[in-house]
C-alpha cells in the first residue's frame, strides 16, 4: 500500500471483506495467541505483569521527555558518523530520501518491513522517480506482488493461501511455482538474494532508537533485515520520533516484552543493533548511514494527554490478535497500514477525523486489547476519547461525523450507549479470556457470546448501530 | 523555523516542557531483577536446548574430535567453500587448516560480498550467549566481519562458557561503545505463508552451535 487514503469508510470496507478472510485471520491470531501464552507462562505471571508495568513506565517516560531524548539521540548518531534528518510530514520525509537516492545515483533499493515507510507511502514516491524498490520481508514481498496492503501488522500476507501465492509467483515472477510453502520460500530466497547483492540502497525502520548511544534496534526473523542494513553501501532508516527510548536498561525490558507478545518467540531470530555506518572496512556494512526522524502528526497526537499514550505502542500486534472486530474483518477494512485496535487509535490520529472518523467506532470496547498490550496502553479509553472527538470535536480537531453517526445514531444515544457497551465488553472479557488460556479462541465461545463473535456482529456495528443496540437491550431485559 | 526546530518546539509545546527542563533518570527497569544463572554447565545445557527447539543443531565436541565433527558437517551440508572469522580463538582450534585438509576451499572473510554469498559455510565465534532465549550475540569488528554469519548457507558458531550471560543487561553494558552487533536466535525463519514455519529464508538455512571441550 503506497497511497495515503483520503477517506476511510469502514462500513463499506467491511462489506467488501471476502468470506475467507475471518477464517485465515483467526488461524493466524489463534496460533500467535497460543504461542504467546506458552512463553508468557514460562516467564510467570507475576514477572510478566512487572515487565508490562516497567514497559509502560519506560515508554511513558520516553514520551513525556521526548525532546530531551531526541536531541541526545541525534548527538550520538552524529558522533558515530551518521547523518540525522528531521521530517515534519510524509512529503518532507519522502523528499529527503528521494534526494539522497538521486544524489548517489541509486537505482535499486531493498526494504525491510517498516510501518513508518508504509505510513508515508515511500515506495510509491521512489518508484515514481524511477527507483526500483523491493520489499524483502517474505510477507511484504508477496503483498507487493499482489498490489495490496498488509492484512496484519506481523504477518502481512495472512489473507492469502499458498495456492494463491503460488499463482501470484507464477504470474508475476514467471516461474513454475508449486503451492508448497517451502518451495515458495526457496523461490523468494533465490530471487531476493540477487537483489540484496546488487541493491545500492537499503531502507529500514526501527523498533527502538536508543538515545544513550544513538543505536537503532531492528527486530526481524528472516534475515532480510540484516541483508538490507549490511550489504548496500547506503542505509537510510525512516523512524517515527515515538520510537526513541532512553537507555539500554529500557531496551532490556522492552526486548523481553516485544517478541513474546508479537509472535510468541522468546527472541526473534535476528535482532540488529546499529550505531551509525561501518567503523572499519574489514567488518563490512554500509559506508553511509542516514536517519530520518519522522513527525507526521505525532507531535499533534501528543497534545492530548489521554490519546498521546497511543505513542507508547511497540507494534507487537497482540491487540489485533485478541480483537473480536479485527478477527472478523482482517486488516484491509481499516483502510491504512495500521489495523486492529492500534490502527483504530493511530490511523485516526495520524490521518485526522476528516479521513478516519469511522475507525474509533470499529471496536466493541471489550477491553481485551488493553489486557494484553505489553506496554499497558489504555486502548478502550483512548478510543472512547476519539469517539467523542469525532462527534463533538475538541481543541485538537473539529468534529467530523463518521458513517456510523450519519447512519442515525444521535449524540445522546451514543454517549449513553458507550458505558453500556463498556460494561458489556467487560463481561465479554471473561468469556474471551477463559478459552484463551487454553489456547482456544472465540469460535468456541459459549452462547450467547458466540452470536456476538461469529460472522454477524461487526457489520451490525457498522451498519445499524442503534438497532443492534436496541435489540441487545431488549434481549437483556427479557 | 526549520523542520528540526519546529518538531522539537512542537514536542515541547505539547508536553509543556522547556528546552532545558531537567530529566530525572528512569528507574522502572531497575525493578526487574535480572535472571539468576545456574552453574555454567546447566546454563550451556539450557542454551543448547533452546537453540535445539528452534531447529539449530548443538553439541559438545572434544578438541581432538573437531576434525571428525567438521568432516561430518562438510558431508551433511555438502560444503565446498567456507569462510571464517579471523580470530585467535578459531585459529587456535585449527578450523581453517582442518577445512583445507577436508578439501574445502577457503574464502577470505574480507572478500567481496558476492564471493561471500557463494560460501556454503561460515564459521564464527560467539561473544555472548543468553541461555534463557537461546540467543547468540556476535560483535562486528575488523577480525569479525558481519557477512560471515549472514551470507553463507550454513552457520557454525563456536561458543565457550565464558560467553554465557544470564541476562542481556551485562552484555549491553560491556559492548555499548560498539557500532554494531547482532543477536542470532536459531536459523532464519518465517511463518508468512499460511503460518507454516519455514526455516532458511534469507539468512542461514542451518545453524550449528558447538562447545569445544
Ligand atoms: S497497542 Fe499495545 S498491543 Fe497493540 S500493537 Fe501497540 S503495543 Fe502491541
Briefly, what is this?
The complex is a heterodimer of chains A (478) and B (213). By secondary structure, chain A is an alpha/beta fold.
Notes on the protein architecture:
The complex is a heterodimer of chains A (about 475) and B (about 210). Chain A is α/β, with parallel strands linked by helices. Chain A has two domains: about 400 residues, Rossmann fold, CATH 3.40.50; about 60 residues, no CATH class. Chain A is about 55% helix and about 10% strand. A six-stranded parallel β-sheet of chain A has the order 1-10-7-4-2-3, sandwiched between helices. Chain A has a four-stranded mixed β-sheet with strand order 8-5-6-9, with helices on both faces. In chain A, helix 2 packs across helix 12 and helix 16 runs parallel beside helix 19. The longest helix of chain A is centred in the last third of the chain and has 27 residues. Chain A is globular, with a radius of gyration of 22 Å. Chain B has a six-stranded parallel β-sheet with strand order 1-11-7-4-2-3. In chain B, strands 5-6-8 form a three-stranded antiparallel β-sheet. In chain B, strands 9-10 form a two-stranded antiparallel ribbon. The mean pLDDT of chain B is about 95. The interface between A and B is large, with 98 and 75 residues. Strand 9 of chain A pairs antiparallel with strand 8 of chain B.
